[in-house]
Design a protein that fits this description.
Shape: globular
Number of helices: 6
Number of strands: 0
Oligomer: single chain
Amino acid sequence: MELFVFVAASAMIFAGALGVILRPHPVHAALSLVLTLFGVAVMFVSLHAHFLAAVQVIVYAGAIVVLFLFVIMLLGVDRTEDINIEPLTVQRPLALIVGAGIAAIVSAAVVSSADILDRQGPGLDLTTVDSPDANIRQMARSVFGDHVFAFELTSVLLLVAVVGTVLMARRIPSAGGKGK
């Protein structure tokens, strides 16, 4: 049964991710993102991380995707733009540099966290496991203490995603000087 749930959730995640990349209409891409996020929530449930599954559905599939859809529909995206005409000619080389930098940072984080896990073990504080809110206290201490930089970086990435959505959906005035 666990294998079936894993395969079904993986198929949901994969199909949704392909939809995000391949769908030409931004609203359809955002709805494909919802499918991906629900697949991740199913994975959390199969790992008995019910709180994370609820957060995944409420925060990401609910609030973040609704925010994306609001921005997309507010800007009224009803046509595609020619991506061969770039308003900023430096954006692609800059994107490659930033992407390589992010890949290097993620690789360094994986290597350093592997060393920390080897030294500290799983990091569970077994003295507080008996209290009813021990799991949430440990997660809060971890997120807002040890990993506060990653938490803040995630908020910046979400802000960049919203700004990117606005820029991707912008309207260019017509040749007559009048916009739609």
